[in-house]
Structures are given as C-alpha cells and as structure tokens.
Amino acid sequence: MAPGGSRTDRVRPKGRTLVPLFLLAATITATAQAAPGDAQRGREIVANRQLGLCLLCHSAPIPEERFQGNLAPDLAGAGSRWTEEQLRQRIKDSSTLNPDTIMPAYHKTEGLTRVAPAQRGKPILSEQQIEDVVAYLATLREAAK
C-alpha cells in the first residue's frame, strides 16, 4: 500500500488520474423524483439508436439489433460486474471515474463542450430514463459467450 493512503480511499485505473471516492458518494444514489426503474423501458433505451446511442459503442444481448459497437465494454454481464450505484454513476457522468472517457455524460448539463445550442442545459437522459437503464443493466448477469 502506498504511504499516506489506503486502497479504499482512491480509485485508480492503471495509468489514470486518482479519483477520491468521497467525490463519488454524493452522486451515485437514485434521485427522489424518479420512480423505480423499469427494465423493459431500459432495454428499449439501450437499443434506441436515436436516444441512448448505447449500441454505437457497446454490444449488448439484444440479438435483433445489428451492428453493435466494440469500442466499450460488452454490456452482457454488467449486472454482475457493477452495483446499481456504480452503473448509475457510469451513465450519469463516467468522467468522474475516468477523465479520459469517450462516453457521454447522460445527465450532466454544465462544463460540457461542443453541445448543440438546442441541447444546452438539457441532459441527454432524464432521471427516470437513467433509472430504467440501470434496472435493465442490473438484469444482465451472464457474460457474453
């Protein structure tokens, strides 16, 4: 263990900047305005190429959707790899975990660059849509074969 710190107070992917865990704690809980997520609606958002655009970079166990991405982790098994809170954080603003991410911040509205004028100040997904996607991803327990 490094002097002055413990393994539990920092997250550091190899070659990445340290991110103090206390910064994540306030942002990963579900929002009071959102109802519990609906996995079916979440699946529809993930598959929707005009709304979520998830399949542009990720592949997922949605066999009817062709031409799935391979730039980001396969979503199969996501519910086994991450908790709901971790999934929520990755969707809302994955740059809190990896400042070099190419994944859009689906619920961040400030500090962004190259945002179309019509979209400024608006999140990509609503709190409810994020909860729906989290509910769907949490059901994905088996890794891709």
UniProtKB/TrEMBL annotation:
Coiled coil: none annotated. Pfam families: Cytochrom_C (PF00034). The keyword Metal-binding applies. GO terms for molecular function: electron transfer activity; heme binding; metal ion binding. Residues 37-141 form the Cytochrome c domain. InterPro entries: Cyt_c-like_dom, Cyt_c-like_dom_sf, Thiosulf_SoxX. PROSITE patterns: CYTC (PS51007). Keywords: Heme, Iron, Metal-binding, Signal. Residues 1-34 form the signal peptide. NCBIfam families: thiosulf_SoxX. This is Sulfur oxidation c-type cytochrome SoxX. It comes from Pseudoduganella guangdongensis.
